[in-house]
Amino acid sequence: MATPVTVEPAPASPHRFGRITLDMRQNLPPWKQAVFLGGSLAIGLVISIVILAFAGISPGELAGELAGVANADSLRNTLVQAAPLILVGLGASLAFRIGFWNLGIEGQMMFGGIFATAVSIAEIGPPSLRLLFMGIAAALGGMFWVLVVLLLKTRFRVNEIIATLLLNYVAMYFLFHLLYGAWQDARSAFPQSTPYKPFERLNDIGFNVNAGLLVAIAGVLVAGWFIHMSRAGFYMRFISSNPGMAKVVGVPIQTVTFWIVAASGACCGLAGYVNVASQEGRLTQSFADGYVFSGVLIAFLARNDPIVVAVVGFLISVLFITGQQLQVFYQIPFTMVQMIEAIIVIAVASSEFFIRHRVRWIR
Question: Considering the entire predicted model, what is its pTM?
Answer without folding.
Answer: 0.86
